[in-house]
């Protein structure tokens, strides 16, 4: 398991410009856990949003297959998170190990599900409805439907699902599948969990099969 630094990720780089320190606690005892987390400054939040916006054109232009490969790589990294990771999540949430292991499987499964949808291709729903012949008072407009990514997506970690609705949860999976970069705000109750999952995403992005798709 990687070392917990308590820094923010911005554009794939670590950043800790702020001076406000936060701490996770043992959810069963209230004991403060031994990691400092540096709260992002307004400037860092702005930089993260701008980095996501800058990454959008390149990431959006990737083929569905390349995005599917990225999602599969994330799923593999999530599944590889071991017992030490589960212990951290249990301590921050007071949830039993069995629940965390099941939720880890659900989280990686969501990534693989969206990868399958990308490869299947039916999500495009390509359709053109031609206008009706001229009629009064006005002809029917030409209805053309497209499904496109709209840009970066902000995701906020949930308190009750530290994995499935968090750093690499369903919201993140669906955004990445649609070609949208994600700016993620970790829940203050499980910041160590969020960082360890973020590290897993970075490892997935650095895999040869994902480059240069995810290096932005």
Quaternary state of the chains: single chain
Strand neighbour order, sheet with most strands: 1-2
Number of helices: 6
Shape: globular
Helix content: 40-55%
Q: State the distance separating the first and last CA atoms.
A: 24 Å
Question: Mind summarizing the main beta sheet?
Answer: 2 strands, antiparallel
Q: pLDDT average, as an integer?
A: 89
Radius of gyration: 20 Å
What low-confidence regions span 5 or more consecutive residues with pLDDT below 50? Answer: none
Query: How does the helix and strand content classify structurally?
Result: alpha+beta
Secondary-structure element order, as H and E?
EEEEHHHHEEEHEH
- Please indicate the percent range of residues in DSSP E strands (runs of 2 or more): 5-15%
Q: What's the total count of β strands?
A: 8
Could you characterize what this model shows?
With about 220 residues, the chain is α+β, with helices and mostly antiparallel strands. Helix content is about 45%, strand content about 10%. It has 6 helices and 8 strands. A hairpin with a 2-residue loop joins strand 1 (about 10) and strand 2. The relative contact order is 0.18. The mean pLDDT is about 90.
Throw out a few tags for this protein.
two-stranded antiparallel sheet; 216 residues; alpha+beta; single chain; 6 helices
SSE layout:
Blueprint: E1 8-10, E2 13-15, E3 21-22, E4 37-38, H1 42-60, H2 64-80, H3 83-93, H4 97-120, E5 127-129, E6 143-145, E7 153-156, H5 170-178, E8 182-185, H6 191-205
Parallel strand pairs: 7-8
Antiparallel strand pairs: 1-2, 3-4, 5-6
Helix pairs in contact: 2-4, 2-6, 3-6, 4-5
């Amino acid at each position: 398991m990687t070392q917990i630094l308590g820094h923010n990720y911005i554009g794939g780089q670590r950043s800790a410009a702020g001076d406000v320190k936060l701490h996770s606690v043992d959810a069963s005892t209230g004991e403060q856990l031994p990691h400092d987390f540096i709260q992002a400054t307004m400037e860092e939040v702005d930089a993260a949003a701008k980095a996501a916006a800058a990454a959008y054109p390149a990431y959006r232009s990737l083929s569905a297959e390349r995005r599917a490969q990225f999602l599969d790589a994330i799923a593999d990294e999530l599944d590889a998170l071991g017992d030490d990771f589960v212990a951290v999540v249990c301590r921050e949430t007071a949830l039993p190990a069995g629940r965390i292991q099941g939720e880890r499987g659900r989280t990686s499964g969501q990534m693989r599900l969206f990868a399958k949808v990308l490869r299947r291709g039916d999500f495009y729903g390509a359709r053109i409805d031609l206008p009706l012949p001229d009629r009064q008072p006005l002809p029917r407009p030409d209805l053309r439907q497209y499904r496109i990514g709209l840009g970066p997506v902000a995701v906020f970690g949930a308190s009750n699902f530290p994995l499935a609705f968090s750093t690499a949860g369903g919201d993140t999976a669906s955004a990445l599948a649609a070609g949208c970069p994600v700016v993620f705000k970790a829940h203050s109750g499980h910041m160590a969990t969020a960082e360890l999952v973020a590290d897993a995403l970075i490892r997935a992005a650095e895999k040869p099969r994902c480059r240069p798709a995810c290096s932005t």
